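Example record

Each entry pairs one chain with its bound ligand, zinc ion.
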Amino acid sequence: MTARRTTVEAKNRDAILERLTARRSAIAHSAEGLHGEAADAMEHRDLSDLYDVETVADVDVGVTLTLATRAERSVSTFDDAIARVADGDYGLCTTCGGKITQARLRALPATLRCIRCSRMASLTGSC
Ligand SMILES: [Zn+2]
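Structure tokens for the complex follow.
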């Protein structure tokens, strides 16, 4: 047996993967819904007033697309977290290599960093 460092016991791995996959799926579904909303809003725009450059509807579409983009980024972070589970690195801080607390992983299951490194990253702007 190798001395490979892991924080994820095999018995917990399936439960973690299930939780991450469910969250990822919900967020992906949300992103699809937001894209659909934006597409519908664009399709039903009132083009009768071409001089009304930016309407409330345009702003709403912009906000919706921003939310969709954020959701897609979140899906990507969940994909990375799922890969880390498979690699045995899930739960280890990508900056210092220390363990990420279970409370933090429950709150932010796709987090890459422990709280200390996360705070340092936000202070230095290297998020
Ligand atoms: Zn750390």
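Residues 93, 95-96, 98, 113-114, 116-117 surround zinc ion (CB under 6 Å).
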